[in-house]
Write a structure and sequence with these properties.
The chain is of the alpha+beta class. It has 26 helices and 15 strands. 47% of the residues are buried. The strands form four sheets. Strands 4-3-5-7-6 form a five-stranded mixed β-sheet. The radius of gyration is 29 Å and the shape is globular. A hairpin with a 2-residue loop joins strand 9 and strand 10 (594-601).
Length: 696
């Protein structure tokens, strides 16, 4: 008697997932770790990344994070970039992201940053393999699928920390989605919701939004395709209602991050989608799709990249883009395997529902990446908030890997041949992928990270002779002054207070400042100017302090001699209105969340701290609560009577406490529901003794 045929696609997928053994997990984990350590061996041996956003953006945040953790504090404010900004609310800080909370407490900043990259590459590979397995791809082709996904899309984006973070959570949450649909339970619902929430805690919401959208589209395609197959039992639609619920609960889990970010969004440049912020920026011009077949030997060659022909190609929309955002490459051999799936005889051996699901998602990601659909989606919630349509290619990258694995399974039927063929294809594909990424990436690994040269920097040593918290540096590189432990302008923020995107807070960098420029620098509390241009005679308004090559700046910028100037007449960070009322001031203590100082006033005055006033800052004068002055300035100010006083500004934003409360309550409720489910699943012990049972 033959066994009954499995007709339900969910049952068929479940049968495939049950075949995953511990040995297979160990194989995937070992290969994934080996690839991460091998590809990024320069980071393993103590090197570091240079280029892109690494030093202008991510590391200044991580330095404040690590220093605050060392003091036993959680940094809610970044006090060094510009006039300051809410660090926990900014889009990519990841203050509460678990690996950040652990690594930056245990290791130096560069080591922690490197370890985070390697861990995410490792786990992204493992979870991509596991998701491919539940898509009815066998073990060795699933390893090839993970290779195509992880090392095809992410190395080109190595300067963008959010890339590989999203690379981990997309396949993991898709796998958990499959498990939840197969067999709904409170535990699986909680796991999916928790993972969606943790991804949001990383702080970069664009890929998290794409992740959530991918889950819902995947579920919708599962429903549609299963109902179109008459030979398959329809998937119960009620099971997919759990997915929007999981997304909502995930948002509640991440409320500690999202509520402050929503507050910042309403105060930021993204409150409107015009001007500086263009959602269509970072698209993939349609002709650039041919990079799948003509990668590093044409589209990614240095000559083509410099020519700008990509952005001027037919069909490209009127928006900025760049080679990193537009990158998509699976490798030549995987591309051939994907094309083979269009052969009827091959496709008959491929699970139909899985094939059409991922063909649709892959094509959809490519189409949306072109930016053609932006006029339609700009009116939809979420889509208008994020720029970079090219980021939707992450779905196409995963789809390319899945289709590659399906094709390998269909072509190589014998287990031994399948293992050898996929291993050979993988060995040939990895250098192909890495070579393509090398020409696209805007960051490289260097043997000695610039941070290692921080202590030998003469600029840092000279600025340290003054009170560091009183220094504000005007420098040609945004956020670069943070590396010296001092405040600096101009600032570089992904999501920042809107005032930072005005001319008022973006002074012209020149050592021949006009009277207007000098007044602007004085209003911003600038005390020093760092110049990387050619030798020149400074104006009378500034004085040259020193002029030498600097070890840290040479490593970051690749420049030679730099010059440090100071303003001849610099009022500094603390001033008064009227100006003559302030006889003197002294800074007592500064941390990201607190600024304490004393003032000596000859008359009643308004004392101004030249840092950004933002919701959540409160002030005390001599330990007593005071009301911040209500004026048109963006600075913090408070009215103080004559005499000597101690003023303390403290950052305690309501949005943080509201968000934290929501997150804690949500997690506790999830734990309670899961505990109740576990308790109900445990068999109750009978109160009847064995003797009584026998008698009965």
């Amino acid at each position: 008697m033959t066994s009954p045929m499995i007709r339900n696609p969910i049952q068929k997928a479940e049968a495939g997932t049950k075949r995953v053994t511990r040995l297979e997990w160990l194989l995937a984990a070992t290969i994934g770790l080996g690839l991460a350590l091998g590809v990024w061996h320069g980071l393993v041996t103590g090197g570091g990344l240079v280029g892109g956003d690494t030093y202008p953006y991510y590391l200044p945040q991580k330095i404040v994070l690590a220093e605050s953790f060392a003091r036993g504090e959680i940094p809610l404010w970044h006090h060094l970039t510009g006039l300051g900004y809410p660090l926990h609310a900014e889009s990519q800080a990841g203050v509460f992201y678990p690996t950040n909370q652990i690594l930056y407490r245990l290791f130096p900043v560069n080591t922690a940053y490197n370890a985070s990259i390697i861990i995410h590459y490792w786990l992204a590979f493992v979870f991509a393999w596991r998701f491919a397995r539940c898509q009815q791809v066998s073990t060795w082709p699933a390893l090839l699928a993970a290779l195509v996904y992880v090392y095809g899309w992410f190395p080109a984006r190595i300067s963008l920390e959010w890339g590989i973070i999203g690379g981990l959570w997309l396949p993991l949450t898709l796998w958990l989605t499959e498990l939840l649909v197969e067999s709904p339970s409170a535990r699986r619902f909680a796991c999916l919701s928790g993972c969606l929430g943790i991804h949001l805690l990383a702080g970069h919401f664009a890929l998290a939004f794409i992740n959530q959208l991918a889950l819902l589209l995947y579920a919708a395609l599962r429903i549609i395709l299963s109902r179109r197959k008459s030979s398959c039992a329809a998937i119960p639609s009620r099971r997919f209602v759990l997915l929007p619920g999981a997304v909502v609960v995930g948002l509640l889990v991440a409320a500690i991050q999202l509520v402050p970010s929503y507050e910042l969004k309403s105060e930021s440049q993204r409150a409107a989608t015009d001007g500086e912020f263009d959602p269509a920026s970072g698209h993939m011009p349609p002709c650039y799709v041919t990079q799948l077949a003509a990668s590093w030997w044409y589209w990614h060659s240095p000559e083509i990249l410099k020519s700008g022909v990509m952005q001027n190609s037919p069909g490209a929309i009127d928006a900025e883009t760049n080679k990193v955002e537009a990158h998509l490459y699976w490798g030549l051999l995987p591309l051939l395997l994907v094309l083979v799936t269009f052969n009827d005889s091959v496709r008959k051996r491929i699970p139909e529902q899985v094939f059409w699901t991922w063909l649709a998602l892959t094509a959809g990601g490519i189409i949306y990446a072109t930016g053609w659909l932006m006029p339609i989606t700009n009116g939809l919630p979420g889509f208008s908030f994020f720029k970079g349509p090219g980021r939707y290619l992450i779905i196409s990258a995963l789809g390319g890997g899945i289709l590659t694995g399906l094709a390998a399974d269909a072509l190589f039927r014998k287990p031994r041949v399948l293992a050898m063929a996929t291993l050979l294809i993988g060995c040939l594909t990895l250098p192909d992928l890495l070579m393509s990424s090398r020409y696209v990436a805007d960051a490289v690994v260097v043997a000695e990270p610039p941070l290692a040269k921080s202590e030998s920097s003469w600029v840092r040593q000279l600025l340290a002779t003054e009170t560091p918290s009183s220094v504000r540096l005007l420098a040609p590189g945004a956020n670069v002054g943070n590396l010296f432990g001092v405040s600096c302008i101009p600032q570089y923020l992904g999501l920042g207070p809107s005032v930072y995107f005005t001319d008022e807070l973006n002074p012209e960098l020149t050592i021949y400042p006009t009277d207007t420029t000098v007044q602007q620098l004085r209003r911003l509390g600038v005390t020093h100017i760092l110049w990387d241009g050619p030798d020149t005679i400074p104006s009378e308004r500034i004085r040259l302090r020193k002029q030498l090559p600097d070890s840290l700046l040479t490593a970051v910028w690749g420049t030679g001699t730099c010059s440090l100037f100071e303003l001849a007449d610099r009022p500094g960070r603390i001033v008064s209105l009227p100006q003559t009322a302030l006889e003197g001031s002294s800074i007592l203590d500064t941390t990201p969340n607190r600024f304490e100082f004393t003032v000596d006033l000859r008359d009643d005055a308004e004392v101004i701290l030249r840092d950004l006033m933002y919701p959540g800052w409160s002030v005390t004068v001599d330990g007593k609560h005071a009301v911040p002055a209500n004026n048109d300035s963006v600075m913090r100010s408070v009215a103080v009577s004559r005499g000597t006083h101690t003023i303390q500004w403290t950052f305690k934003p309501t949005s943080f406490y509201v968000g934290a409360t929501i997150s804690v309550v949500t997690v506790l409720c999830m734990v309670l529901v899961v505990a109740l489910e576990i308790r109900r699943s445990v068999p109750k012990h009978s109160s009847i003794s064995p003797v009584q049972n026998v008698t009965a």
